[in-house]
Design goal:
heterotrimer, A alpha+beta (407), B mainly alpha (664), C mainly alpha (204), A: 407 residues, alpha+beta, Immunoglobulin-like, 3-stranded mixed β-sheet, B: 664 residues, Cytochrome C Oxidase, Chain A, 18 helices
């Protein structure tokens, strides 16, 4: 095949290439428009909005440069393909042009640099925050601990997991750490991610403009079940948040006498309380039941279940406690109705019993964890995650009934 | 130790009797002398054979790493994938990254560097041929140790970045990470040896007239890469040693309970890891800086700018490591500084893209497969570079880091950039290496399938990342997938299909290779009307590379021997064909050429180091055995002169086969 | 990077080996290797500096260092640099006997230093500073141990060079071989001066 024939054929391909790219770009735009819960272009609070402005700037610049370059490539390839012209002059370049082409990107980038600089320091500011929440990562769930803050009605520490509940329209300071490996806290609608590193405390600002629920996911690889370590941030109006705080601090309600739930409490005391704390729960002899996760779990903690049914996920926010339609009611609620719906918690009708029972039946089969009792030598016999408990079906019935009372 | 360092007599004759040259290498063991058959490969010190072996090993690992990638894409094609368990998936992405970086990309670049660097500078071999072989065998042993873990309790599962403390003995209890640390240390040692060797070769063994500013750009880029390796490999070695001491001997380096700081690992890793990125990409830049001028029939636009921007990338590349840690909690000052530094590195990179484009501008472009891959690199790398700029903005990066957007970015840079560059090199230099042309028709299919497959696989990952899909998750869930048709489900499926298109394109390449080997057509001496020294010899080159060492007067010496400028029209006029020039060199062949002789010791020494390493895991007796092999082979090495006998080698007229020092 | 390339490099096997830079291949390779080593020790020293005060268990550095003892062994190592210089100079004067003598003395001084380090490690271990005791102990033993291994390798290189010279089996330029071993030896000494200052003299 002659060179000319080849290059002529290829000119068509170059054009085809250009069309492909155009189509690609439009698909890209279409792709971004859809409503994914972790979409990084849909900020729902001040910090994420600041980041989003920077994103638009730099993506815009990159896009324009990309288009210019594409045009340049296409023109070059079509215009100078081998059409039988003589071998060109062997010129080695033009320094003036080179220097210009070096300075232009440098100028563009220095503008980007100035904005970046400001953005970095603004986002690192912690002085103006109004509420502190400690967030602790461990394999493979997050613990939220609200230190005593009288202004917010928090008179004794609140410890929860699964869902970070915070007041909307408030600058919240997250203080992160980890109990084992490095995790990373990320609620894209509210801010970028920040690693939770054992032995260090990192800060992260969160702010939600409106009540609502915002999805997130652990983004630093943290071992076996990294894919099953999610989180949700729930923003409530200040009044609703106060209600939530009161609910969380409310005393333990003993299950009704002779109910299934009461039998469930016994099962819980027998099996679960080894790791899971329920505040106010008493043993048969009337003494307080104190969980000892440090003896059984390598990270030294297990989710506190005191107000389990006030949140609507479990097992690292990976499974829902709500049935699909009930979940939809909460997630799709308008922001003014959201608080009330969220504060309803999980009722017997709405409980996603299928997944909860599956979990109680055999947790490690549902979520990969280091729970094989024969392989715990490296961790001195402690589990990483929840082990298989060999519960009978009737025990599971009782437990489900009991858990429903924890609100 | 080098060919040029045969026992010199003049200096010593006055004091000592003549140098003793044993015809045996150790005791009664005779030196390997075969010039054909498997022994001629295993014990060779010829940079061309070593280069080819690097290439073969790299290709094997490319396929292994590729299969790992396909398995991951199978798993992620749909929500809640069932193809792999969480554990297996974690091993897959760890080994995919490690394999592609350390066992494919670096060795494949080493293959080209070994083969072409001496040819491009007009040398007969590298400075230290036995060291060269040693580097290869360290890589092979390292690669085997790394992958042995698959069969001995599971591969490493901490990600190629292996962040502490997740890599510690408690959190990663299988032996996988131990094999990983050992394998990388051994392979790293090989790279270090190789890089010192190549630097010395470039600096010291250039042909007459070949000044640094007449070096082909490929050689320049390889030189920069070797400096990057010399100064970055020791840092990862420190990290690997600390990790190994912790896992195998109970040291406390990453034990948080003792007060350790997990960020120490990240700093050490990325001080190596970021220069490593340029170690991967610069060779490809070098390759296309040869290919683009050749097929544009014009010199590289702004040669000094390309060279200095390459050096600048290498230099600044050491000062941007913490941009991998923008979310790690470094504090705003470090983040801001590293953010700005990262933007700075975009400038020399941009310079290169402009220069390549302007090389084509005003040219006479011939779209061969090699050229298509080179242009593919320019286009795809531009996309990857621009997405790179988007996360040099640190706050923006905190949204994108550890999502699929990053996966998309670095695959555009590394697949679109590096792999396309390497494939361009295959098609460009295949006739030089094997004397046969790869089929251009199949090559065109190979290119288009790879181009489409690559964009299908990695293009959607941009969107997935921006829609919020994090990396390294063994499953993704409907709950986070978003609504509408273009959600996670759609893009993940496209990406998975694309990965199989990619696999098909690689398969086509392999078919092309096999077909060419069987019945490929003989390559002309100068099929591409090429420009640099490696073409002023036969294809494949004779063992001694050049019949006569060329004297260099121009950048693009070969081109200027073929063409002169017409003063009036400033166009180029052919005055000689490549064949004529090579014939002329043959007619004026130099006599009396010494080449280094084959040796057992590089291979034996590398095996010894491998055994020694396994001793760390399997006990002191194994270690002692390994140490014994190492000592024995070092002794044999030191006692063995690099040239077997004081026998001169005169090339048989026109022939390429010969018996090497057969009386050794 | 000298651009004035001298091209007898390819004049293979005909006496003096002139290279493009004028620096012999071996020497250039050794310089590059030492450049790489700088980063290796840089990494190890940084690790130590980060961890030297982190003592959760066992003795604190201030309680355990025996500065006078280590000063003496540091002095021994420093002196070995001097004798190494003498060896190189003797080799350049082509005085084999003197070269061998000074190489031997250098090796002996080096071995004394290593012996001192073994003694020091043993003493520390007896005082409760095991390799796994604390972050400080792990990083201390790793850093000084790596240096000790380098000195040991140097001693072996010195002895091998000496025996090769004695048996007249040097391939290449003898004076240069000694010089290259000398480069390595001086490097190891300089690194020790840095380690001694940072580890022993500046209080944690």
């Amino acid at each position: 095949m002659s060179r000319h024939a080849m290059s002529a054929r290829n000119a068509h391909r170059v054009r085809a290439l250009a069309i492909t790219k155009l189509v690609g770009a439009s698909i890209f735009l279409a792709g971004c428009a859809k409503d994914a819960p972790q979409d990084v272009f849909q900020p729902k609070g001040e910090n994420a909005a600041d980041i989003n402005n920077l994103q638009y700037m730099v993506f815009g610049i990159a896009g324009v440069v990309g288009v210019i370059m594409t045009v340049l490539f296409v023109v070059t390839m079509t215009k100078f393909r081998d059409k039988g012209q003589p071998i060109p002059e062997q010129s080695h370049g033009k320094p003036a042009l080179e220097i210009t082409l070096t300075i232009i990107p440098a100028l563009i980038l220095s503008v980007v640099g100035v904005f970046t600089f400001r953005g970095v320091f603004d986002l690192a500011e912690t002085k103006d925050t109004e509420l502190v929440i400690n967030v602790t990562g461990q394999q493979w769930w997050w613990e939220y601990d609200y230190p005593v803050q009288g202004d917010w009605g928090i008179d004794k520490p609140i410890i929860t997991s699964g869902q970070l509940v915070m007041p909307a329209g408030t600058k919240v300071l997250i203080r992160e750490t980890s109990r084992d490996v490095i995790h990373s806290y990320w609620i894209p609608a509210l801010n970028g991610k920040r690693d939770a590193v054992p032995g260090r405390i990192h800060t992260l600002r969160l702010h939600a403009d409106n009540p609502g629920i915002y999805a997130g996911q652990c983004t630093e690889f943290c071992g076996l079940s990294h894919g099953n370590m999610r989180m949700e941030a729930v923003a409530l109006s200040k009044e609703d948040f106060a209600t939530w705080v009161t609910n969380q601090q409310a005393a333990y309600k003993e299950p009704e006498k002779d109910s299934l739930a009461e039998q469930g409490e016994a099962v819980f005391l027998n099996q679960c309380v080894r790791c899971h704390q329920v505040n106010g729960l008493k043993k048969a002899d009337g003494t307080a039941a104190i969980a000892a996760p440090d003896e059984n779990v390598y990270a030294g903690a297990a989710p506190n279940l005191s107000k389990f049914m006030s949140r609507n996920t479990f097992a690292g926010a990976t499974w829902d406690l709500l049935k699909k339609d009930c979940r939809g009611n909460v997630w799709d609620a308008k922001s003014e109705e959201f608080g009330a719906k969220y504060l309803e918690g999980v009722s017997a009708d709405c409980l996603n019993e299928v997944d909860l029972r599956r979990w109680l039946r055999n947790a490690p089969a549902m979520k990969p964890m280091y729970a094989d009792p024969t392989k715990l030598e490296p961790t001195d016999g402690k589990y990483r995650g929840m082990p298989y408990l060999a519960l009978s079906e009737s025990d599971i019935d009782k437990l489900v009934a009991y858990l429903l009372t924890l609100k | 130790m080098a060919i040029i360092e045969r026992p010199s007599t003049e200096l010593e004759v006055s004091i000592t009797p003549s140098v003793v040259v044993p015809s045996t290498t150790l005791g009664n063991l005779r030196r390997p002398v075969q010039s054909t058959g498997w022994k001629s490969w295993l014990f060779t010190v010829d940079h061309k054979k070593i280069g080819i072996m690097y290439g073969v090993f790299a290709m094997i690992f490319f396929i292994i790493g590729g299969v790992e990638a396909l398995l991951m894409r199978l798993q992620l094609a749909a929500p809640d994938g069932k193809a792999l368990s969480a554990d297996l998936y974690n091993q897959m992405f760890t080994m995919h990254g490690t394999t592609m970086v350390f066992l494919f990309a670096m060795p494949m670049a080493a293959a080209f560097a070994n083969y072409f660097l001496p040819l491009q500078i007009g040398a007969r071999d590298v400075a230290f041929p036995r060291m060269n072989a040693l580097g290869l065998w360290f890589l092979v042993v390292g690669g085997l140790v790394l992958n042995a873990a698959w069969f001995l309790g599971g591969a490493a599962d901490g990600g190629w970045f292996m962040y502490a403390p997740n890599s510690g003995p408690v959190f990663s209890p299988s032996n996988g990470v131990d094999f990983w640390t050992l394998g990388l240390q051994i392979a790293g040692l090989g790279s270090l040896i190789g890089s010192i060797n190549l630097i010395v070769t470039v600096l010291n063994m250039r042909a007459p007239g070949m000044t640094m500013m007449k070096l082909p750009v490929f050689t320049w880029m390889i030189l920069v890469v070797q400096f990057l390796l010399v100064f970055s490999l020791p840092v990862i070695t420190v990290a690997l040693v600390l990790l190994m001491f912790q896992r195998s001997f109970g040291a406390t380096f990453f034990d948080v309970a003792q007060g350790a700081d997990p960020l120490l690992w990240q700093h050490l890793f990325w001080i190596f890891g970021h220069p490593e990125v340029y170690v991967l990409i610069l060779p490809a830049f070098g390759i296309i800086s040869e290919v683009l001028p050749t097929f544009s029939r014009k010199p590289l636009f702004g040669y000094p700018f390309v060279v200095f921007s390459g050096a600048a990338i290498g230099f600044v590349g050491f000062g941007v490591w913490a941009h991998h840690m923008f979310a790690a909690g470094l504090g705003p000052v470090s983040v801001a500084v590293f953010s700005i530094a990262t933007m700075a590195i975009a400038i020399p990179t941009g310079v290169k893209i402009f220069n390549w484009t302007l090389t084509m501008w005003g040219g006479k472009i011939w779209f061969t497969t090699a050229m298509k891959f080179a242009i593919g690199l320019v286009v795809l790398f531009t996309i990857g570079g621009l997405s790179g700029v988007t996360h040099s903005v640190a706050p923006s990066d905190t949204q994108q880091t550890d999502t699929y957007y990053i996966v998309a970015h670095f695959h555009y840079v590394l697949f679109g950039g590096m792999v396309f560059g390497l494939f361009s090199g295959f098609y460009y230099w295949w006739p030089k290496m094997f004397g046969k042309m790869l089929n251009e028709r199949l090559g065109s299919w190979n290119f288009w399938l790879m181009f489409i497959g690559m964009n299908m696989t990695f293009g959607p990952m941009h969107i997935l990342g921006l829609q919020g899909q994090p990396r390294r998750m063994y499953v993704w869930t409907e709950a986070r997938a978003g609504e509408g048709f273009f959600n996670f489900g759609f893009w993940n499926l496209i990406s998975s299909i694309g990965s199989f298109v990619l696999a098909l394109s690689v398969l086509l390449f392999l078919i092309n290779v096999v077909q060419t080997a069987r019945k490929g057509k003989q390559a002309p001496l100068d099929p591409w009307d090429a420009r640099t020294l490696e073409w002023i010899t036969t294809s494949p080159p004779k063992e001694h590379n050049f019949d006569r060492i060329p004297t260099v007067h121009h950048l693009d010496e070969f081109f200027h021997r073929k063409y002169v400028e017409d003063e009036a029209t400033h166009t180029m006029k052919a005055i000689a064909t490549g064949e004529e020039i090579v014939r002329n060199e043959e007619a004026n062949a130099e006599s009396h050429i010494h080449l280094p002789s084959a040796s057992y010791w590089p291979l034996v020494l590398a095996i010894g180091v491998g055994v020694l390493g396994l001793g760390v895991l399997y006990g002191v007796p194994i270690m002692v055995l390994g140490a014994a092999i190492v000592l024995l082979s070092s002794f044999g090495w030191v006692m063995e002169p690099s040239v077997a006998e004081d026998s001169d080698y005169d090339p048989p007229a026109g022939g390429t086969s010969k018996e090497l020092a057969s009386h050794g | 990077m000298a651009d004035t390339a001298v091209h007898a490099a390819h004049d293979v096997g005909h006496g003096a080996h002139v290279t493009s830079t004028g620096l012999s291949n071996n020497k250039l390779a050794m310089w590059l290797f030492l450049g790489s080593e700088c980063l290796l020790f840089g990494g190890l020293i940084s690790t130590y500096m980060l961890y030297r005060g982190r003592v959760a268990n066992g003795p604190h550095p201030n309680q355990i260092y025996d500065i006078p003892f280590t000063s003496v062994s540091s002095f021994v190592l420093l002196m070995s640099s001097l004798t190494m210089v003498l060896a190189v100079s003797a080799a350049q004067r082509r005085n084999d006997q003197q070269t061998n003598l000074w190489l031997t003395v250098t090796a002996l001084l080096g071995a004394t230093f290593v012996g001192g380090q073994v003694y020091e490690f043993t003493a520390f271990y007896r005082e409760g500073l095991g390799f796994t005791t604390s972050l400080f102990s792990s990083s201390f033993y790793t850093l000084t141990g790596f240096h000790g291994v380098h000195v040991t390798v140097g001693v072996i290189m010195l002895l091998v060079t000496r025996s090769i010279i004695q048996k007249n089996r040097v391939t290449g330029d003898k004076a240069e071989s000694v010089e290259i071993v000398g480069l390595y030896w001086h490097f190891v000494d300089v690194v020790w001066i840095i380690i001694f200052t940072l580890v022993y003299l500046i209080p944690a």
